[in-house]
Amino acid sequence: MTSEPATVDTPLKKLVGEKTAKALAGHLDLHTAGDLIYHFPRRYDERGEHTDIRSLDVGEQVTVLAQVQRTAVRPMRQRRGSLLEVTVGDGSGGVLTLTFFGNQAWRERELRPGRWGLFAGKVTEFRGKRQLNGPEYVLLGEGGDGEAAANEEVEEFAGALIPVYPAAAAVPTWVIARCVRVVLDTFTPPEDPLPATVRATRNLVGIGSALREIHRPSTKEELYRARRRLKWDEAFAVQLTLVQRKHRAAAWPARARPAKPGGLLDAFDARLPYELTAGQQAVGREIAADLATAHPMHRLLQGEVGSGKTVVALRAMLQVVDAGGQAALLAPTEVLAAQHHRGMLDLLGPLAQAGELGAADNATRVELVTGSLGAAARRRALAEVAEGRAGIVLGTHALLYEGVDFHDLGLVVVDEQHRFGVEQRDALRAKADQPPHVLVMTATPIPRTVAMTVYGDLEVSTLSQLPQGRSPIASHVVPAAEKPAFLDRAWRRLREEVAAGHQAYVVCPRIGEGPQSDEEAPREDDNGRRPPLAVTEVAPLLAEGPLHGLRIGVLHGRLPADEKDAVMRSFAAGDLDVLVATTVVEVGVNVPNATVMIVLDADRFGVSQLHQLRGRVGRGSAAGLCLLVTEAVEGSSARERLDAVASTTDGFKLAELDLEQRREGDVLGATQSGRRSHLRLLSLLRDTDLIRDARAEAIALVEEDPELARHPALAASVAALVDEERAEYLEKG
């Protein structure tokens, strides 16, 4: 270990020793002094303010500050030896059992009632009681207790604020705290990358002070100032990246696609069987104006499930076809691509029948290109696309393969953008001679700060009105474990709807045996919970049991494409009463006669997923019903999440709840890039004002110095915080 000054690039093995450095690298991906210094505490425990043990979730890796209440030693039943059970509490009524196997009398002497400590481990449940098996722990000093005060680790917790770090079983929080102290003793902070004018205007502390105080806060006030500065750095880096990209994109050329009076779009509007909502008309005008400019449109269209986004997108596509170009719509599944195809053919009628008897004079063709097309059908479809006869092209990622060539691609519409990777969207864009106009659609409402942070280089349009004729959806939680009779009633309720001439969905988190698919919830669970329910297992049980005699179909992503399409057509035609499916029905599936949905193991789905799923019912004149079946116990965070979904159909409220319960970094695509999140402190939910201010400063700075040439330290800092891969993710949404 060295006593030389440490910089952000100094390897940790020079500072904390090879063994500890290896553990930090292997378990937490921390390799340098900079990695460790930027590994910020998750929270701070304070003497007198204790963790709420009652809020802990089974399966969670936790570190709790708690007091030993009592100990008990009892013989083990299955093998020789004894078991030490230690009950600890947080002072507010919550208790946790710590279990230690084997003869460990010394632990009983150490863990005396009254002692406070930090206890780290994975929460499990046994006979209804929360417990930690063999947790790591460190006891905190108590005044004159010489034994505890002599313990080296206790020095980390001498202050009033005790930092608790994101940790691993092999590297508990107090080991990280000790390593941070060693590094800070010799650490030379980097040059402050933030321009002095911004620091002064926004009243931000220097980077050196912020990095010291975030780990070893002298007061709550200093901790607040440190966190605010480091949050600013994260927000500013993201906003600078987005503003720079928007600035560059404004200079790109694109072919203008202005509206053409008397063309396909006007003919389509004239044959629409209903009136567009005011929102659809307003957004349509925004998109039409974008398409008429000589720079590529980059617009995000967000709208509640059923708000009519598809019609808005189709009108934009027709404007491009009128201007001599082609439009492509990329859907996440073949089921949805095929449904879009059928829906657009119905809406367009003779306007989509170019070359056929009865076609309108100015008709185009709408082609479906998917991976399951037969060879002859594929050749014919590709020729229509390449020669420009197909003005509108619909498909899945099969559109991205070599051999799909466009005559003049003018507009790309990406439906449910969160399901596509960066490279896929980029491949479709590359099929145009010049950058095409891009319209990204999502039915997952996006809180304002997320729109500002993730889609900051896109213009955002929102459809909040639902078209006339949509019916209300009632949602209820069905606590199957506590009240089995409620589940019986749910199946009877489904049968009542079918008897009334309606149809139903039953949604499961898993397909069944075989390799894991994207549409499935994780099946592994070592916390005492059973695996999630599977479509292939549930469907026969329902057919033999509570839904006996009903016509039941099965739909999931592992079925061959033609079989999926046949099942969906049968359901849409009313030939099936019940569709047992995975989340393959989550987006876009439109069967107005379906009025009830029962979601099994609802706690295994995310908030946005449940909201999307629920949107499949209530699409006709009859009211919709969504029943969320769960074994999650009352008071658990999973149950509270379901109660929240049941209590409102406001997608924006639910989106904020979803954001609260997810790691912030997921929003920035950490899951897509496979790297650690770069949002360590910034909360997209709580730091709205800070993000807005950072955006304003970023716009001013980029206007004055587009490439940050006069601010090299800032440019390097931005590059480190938002690497190129993440920057591309940000750009493409």
Offer a quick outline of the entry:
This protein has 733 residues and is α/β, with parallel strands linked by helices.
Explain what this protein looks like in three dimensions.
The protein is an alpha/beta fold and 733 residues long. The chain folds into four domains: 12-196, Nucleic acid-binding proteins (OB fold (Dihydrolipoamide Acetyltransferase, E2P)), CATH 2.40.50.140; 220-252 and 682-732, no CATH class; 264-463, P-loop containing nucleotide triphosphate hydrolases (Rossmann fold, 3-Layer(aba) Sandwich), CATH 3.40.50; 473-515 and 530-648, Rossmann fold (3-Layer(aba) Sandwich), CATH 3.40.50. The strands form four sheets. The protein has a seven-stranded parallel beta sheet with strand order 11-12-10-13-14-9-15, with helices on both faces. A six-stranded parallel beta sheet has the order 16-21-20-17-19-18, with helices on both faces. Strands 2-3-4-6-5 form a five-stranded mixed β-barrel. Strand 11 (365-369), helix 14 and strand 12 (390-395) form a beta-alpha-beta unit. Helix 9 crosses helix 25 (688-704) and helix 16 (448-454) runs parallel beside helix 25. The longest helix has 30 residues, at 220-249. The two termini are 45 Å apart. The model is unreliable at 143-156, 663-677 and 727-733 (pLDDT under 50).
